[in-house]
């Protein structure tokens, strides 16, 4: 008789699709009183997600996917992010995305407008 899960089975956690994660994050931002929108739509299944936080003072904080090396072995499947830069010039951020597009055209860009700079992301430690 086979029992599930097998004691020697490797457990894996399914990851939400990028499209679903982005939609949920937009709703979370709205729920917290921030405005959020998709600026660039990437691969629905697994596109990398970048989050721009417009502080409405002419500067942008930018967050991107944390490298795989920052994930624990017992990862829960949650998407983790890392800060790429704070107080950036919008033109510098646009140039970063132009470079990124040459390497990986399937990425997403989510904009959050929030004077407090809230991003609502889980950051890697």
Could you explain the architecture of this structure?
- This protein has about 120 residues and is of the alpha+beta class.
- The chain has 2 helices and 5 strands.
- The protein has one domain: hypothetical protein tt1805, CATH 3.40.1530.
- The chain has helices at about 20-30, 90-105, and strands at about 35-40, 50-55, 60-65, 80-90, 110-115.
- Strand 2 (about 50-55) and strand 3 (about 60-65) form a beta hairpin.
- The longest helix has 14 residues, at about 20-30.
- The termini are far apart.
- About 20% of the residues are buried.
Secondary-structure map:
Elements: H1 18-31, E1 35-40, E2 49-54, E3 60-65, E4 81-88, H2 90-103, E5 108-113
Parallel strand pairs: 2-5
Antiparallel strand pairs: 1-5, 2-3, 3-4
Number of helices: 2
Structural class: alpha+beta
Q: Beta-strand level of the residues, as a percent range?
A: 25-35%
Q: Strand-and-helix sequence, N→C?
A: HEEEEHE
Percent helix = 10-25%
The low-confidence runs, each spanning 5 or more residues with pLDDT under 50, are: none
Q: Describe the largest sheet.
A: 5 strands, mixed
- CATH overall fold name: hypothetical protein tt1805
Number of structural units classed as domains: 1
Q: Kindly report the name of the CATH homologous superfamily.
A: Protein of unknown function (DUF1491)
Bulk shape: globular
Number of strands: 5
The CATH C-level name is Alpha Beta
Could you give the order of strands across the largest sheet?
Answer: 1-5-2-3-4
CATH architecture: 3-Layer(aba) Sandwich
* Cα separation of the termini: 43 Å
- Compute the CA-based radius of gyration: 17 Å
Mean pLDDT score: 87
